[in-house]
Amino acid sequence: MKKLLFLGMFSVLLACSQSGEAPVLPGKVGPAGELLVVASESVWNGPVGAAIREVVAQPYPVLPQAESHFDLVNLDPRDFDKFWKPHRNIIYIEVGQAVEQTISKVEFARNRYSSGQIYIEARGKSQQELADAIISRGNEILSILHKEEVDRLAANVRAFDNEALNADLMEKYGLTLDIPRDMFVVAEIVDTSDERLEFLWLQREMTRMKGGNNHDIKEGVFVYTYPYTTDSIFSMNWLLEKRQDMLRKYVPGPTDGSYMANEMHLVPTYEEVVFKGMFASEVRGLWKMQNDFMGGPYYMLTFYDEANQRIVSVDGYAYAPYFDKREYMREVEAIVKTLTLKGAGA
Questions:
Q1: DSSP secondary-structure letter at 171?
Q2: Among residues 345, 338, 337, 342, which one has the least CA distance to residue 175?
Q3: What is the pLDDT of residues 33-50, one digit of tens each?
Q4: Using an 8 Å Cβ cutoff, are 336 and 221 in contact?
Q5: Measured between alpha carbons, how far is 205 from 315 in angstroms, rounded to an integer?
Q6: Angle at 27 between CA 25 and CA 31, to 5 degrees
Q7: Which domains does the chain have, with CATH numbers?
Q8: Which of 71, 226, 309, 313 has the smallest set of CB atoms within 10 Å of its CB?
Q9: pLDDT, tens only, 5-25
Q10: What number of other Cβ atoms are within 10 A of residue 49's Cβ?
Q11: C-beta separation of 299 from 332 below 8 A
Q12: b/e for 275-299, b at 16 or more Cβ within 10 A?
């Protein structure tokens, strides 16, 4: 029986080899938000290492405490073995006269050694030339790495989606989100006193151990829609005023007279983007609980739903007072960006 099983497995492998199919890759390894930099000590401590730190270890936008976009781990090329090769994010550095090309290059690949991996190769004859090439493509490097981490988190949520709640969203609001199974509806408001305004508040509650105690963590999403009336909607000031009004009316805090509000001690960021073919804006900022002692970061995506002549804002926040916030905010952003309108593609 063992011989038959062996022969059967060997036949399958041989058939795959002969058919030209790629071998099955192992799954990626390594913590979320980590980048493995494969470079010698002299390169890591020289201009190239400084360039990498400048690009991917810069502060993550608008968090209560400073956190870098990525945690960097340096590994000597001699130690780059089968244990390290499946890492989720890798940048492999090669500097010296042995490099074949004359112009420094930064190239991207997926799934080089593991499924779901981002693999970056940076090669050049001199450190300064390669450092300049890395800086020149810094925004692209950071964008690709960040987007991949967000997409991975979205895939995790999608695998355990709250299908019943999603069906309810489609029926009532004409949109869907990939919602974690443990997320629930806190409040649902339809206000027709002026013009039709819809407000939905979703939240999940978790606990995590630190210092021998369990601490509360919350992730939430607000979805609110209102008629499109003016192009002025797409400005940071207008959106922040609208957000402040929504939170004051519909998001009470844990004590009497408290409510969620914008925290303006750290200026939010604003960027205009294209989201699934629609004009949109992203705002990243901090929230606080007015008349109470809670706060944290948020990420808000707002876009124009032309078919329904309405504005849709999907606004995700995190509350994790005893922990770093970066990965919670990436998870919130992942949930927000799964939004799809009725009749639209993914």
A1: H
A2: 342
A3: 999 999 999 999 999 999
A4: yes
A5: 17
A6: 145
A7: 19-155 (no CATH), 162-341 (3.40.1000.10)
A8: 309
A9: 433 433 433 344 344 566 688
A10: 22
A11: yes
A12: beeeebbbbbbbbbbbebebbbbbb
